[in-house]
Specification:
Number of strands: 15
Bound molecules: adenosine-5'-diphosphate, magnesium ion
Number of helices: 9
Distance between the termini: 36 Å
Oligomer: single chain
Structural class: alpha+beta
Strand order of the largest sheet: 1-2-6-7-10-13-14-15
Length: about 350
């Protein structure tokens, strides 16, 4: 559940997981690669969107744009939070079926999200919110609740992206008990907006990391690519499974290890099937998407996870400019035809 209220525990967890993220960032920044000359950079890390957020600008010592990025993050969170009273998403979810006016950003994101709902024939479905709420995932405590069957089938009866009508910036829920959760796509959308701002301000080399949702501007320098580590899909993993070199790219992973709890020896994670309301079990541990825009990477990583290895890969191969790496529970990797060679 993205955008849940930030608790003290979240903050502690944020600190606890930061070691792993720092390691990934070091790889991303190429600082583990040895003897190149030191690059000038400025960086800022914080806690937004219920996750650790970090932005690094290269080839500059000016910190002002970082402050600007973080204040933009705060305003996007105010629009898209499911739990902050008065946010666009909160207003939609409490509209009782009456039309709601939303910001152009929210409308834009909803349009994109609904297009992925349609493309995946509902495997990706932003109206999964009532089901997500029943599971009550708490990433910090690693706790949650296996829902009662009746509650689950009642919640599932309100799941269906066709219930969300978007007309310009007016949103109407055709079923008043439907609600939306943009946790599977919002971080990618926000990363793209931050990048747009930084590029218009003239920054040519930067790394935006929204909780492992990575978007790069240019390369680490004009003639050096970023090297991004792709995490082993295991809780508390500190070493990457593989790395890729890239510039001007988005790298987003969805996996079973971020938000989950264990009950009676069984692990329940946060990517749910809109068909039966249970965590998707298809042998996958993670899906990483490489794309130009992060909104596509974010939506598609969740979508492909739900679709599974065969249908997911078929979808990726049908899309231009999008590559994927599927990793199974036993760490077997399958890459799409244009996935970059790790040795390059
Ligand atoms: P993360 O939030 O850890 O980056 P994802 O991008 O994969 O991970 O998003 C998972 C989130 O998406 C869940 O926490 C939930 O809010 C939402 N979600 C879960 N299942 C679905 C689904 N089938 N379709 C759309 N959104 C989903
Ligand atoms: Mg996603």
């Amino acid at each position: 559940m993205l955008f849940s209220r930030i608790s003290q525990n979240s903050y502690r967890r944020c600190k606890a997981t930061s070691a792993a993220l720092v390691f990934l960032l070091l790889i991303a920044a190429g600082t583990l690669s040895g003897c190149e000359k030191k690059t000038v950079s400025v960086s800022k890390t914080g806690f937004f969107l219920d996750t650790v957020v970090s932005i690094t600008l290269y080839d500059t010592e000016n910190k002002a744009p970082l402050e600007e990025c973080f204040s933009r993050l705060a305003s996007y969170e105010k629009l898209l939070s499911r739990t902050q009273e008065g946010s666009d998403v909160w207003n939609i979810n409490h509209s009782g079926g009456k039309p709601v006016e939303v910001s152009s950003e929210t409308a834009d994101l909803l349009e994109k999200a609904l297009s992925y709902c349609r493309l995946s024939d509902g495997a990706f479905d932003i109206t999964i919110a009532p089901v997500i709420a029943l599971w009550n995932f708490d990433a910090d405590q690693k706790t949650g609740t296996v829902p009662d069957e009746n509650d689950l089938s009642n919640a599932l009866s309100h799941v269906g992206y066709e219930n969300v009508q978007l007309d310009g910036t007016t949103v109407t829920l055709l079923d008043p008990d439907t609600s939306i959760d943009l946790g599977g796509i919002a971080k990618g959308y926000i990363a793209d907006l931050l990048k747009e701002d930084l590029v218009s301000a003239g920054y040519a080399s930067a790394l935006i990391d929204l909780g492992g949702n990575i978007l790069t501007i240019g390369g680490k320098s004009q003639n050096q690519d970023f090297r991004i580590g792709i995490r082993r899909p295991e809780p508390d993993a500190t070493e990457p499974l593989t790395t890729i070199s890239c510039r001007d790219a988005s790298i987003v992973t969805s996996g079973t290890y971020e938000r989950y709890f264990t009950e009676n020896g069984k692990r329940y994670h946060h990517i749910l099937s809109p068909v039966d309301g249970y965590p998707v079990e298809n042998g996958l541990a993670s899906v990483t998407i490489l794309s130009e825009h992060s909104v596509d990477g974010d939506a598609l990583s969740t979508t492909c996870f739900v679709l599974g290895p065969e249908k997911g890969m078929a979808l990726i191969e049908s899309l231009d400019g999008i590559e994927a790496l599927f990793v199974t529970d036993d760490l077997e990797m399958t890459a799409s035809s244009g996935w970059p060679d790790a040795t390059k």
